Amino acid sequence: MRDMQEVFDQIQEFKQTKKEIAREYRDTLAQRNGYEELKEELQKLRDKKKTEETNVQAGMGRRWEEYEKATYEIAELEQMLTDIAMTNLMDGKNINLKDKNDTEYEPSYKITYKKIS
Length: 117
Description:
This protein is mainly alpha-helical and 117 residues long. The protein contains three helices and two strands, in the order αααββ. The protein has a two-stranded antiparallel ribbon with strand order 1-2.
């Protein structure tokens, strides 16, 4: 098995390479004829789309408020589910779930790292 630091260093190298290539890509696109005009047209369409969405949401009134509340509640309950699962995992308990159709779910783990300032 490879050393964690070695793998981390490789990831950092690839991220730097990717960043350099992305910068070259953006520079090349900026030099293309018509690209800036296309970007402006796309932004206008996005703005128009956002206006239409806002108008429809306002028209839906209370129903749209319920949608937003449901979105918030789902996020809160998913965090709670994660917390409960971690507690059960540390206690050695089973953490598999079933939905109404008897479809089984098992946890999927992911560890991420963030900078320590």
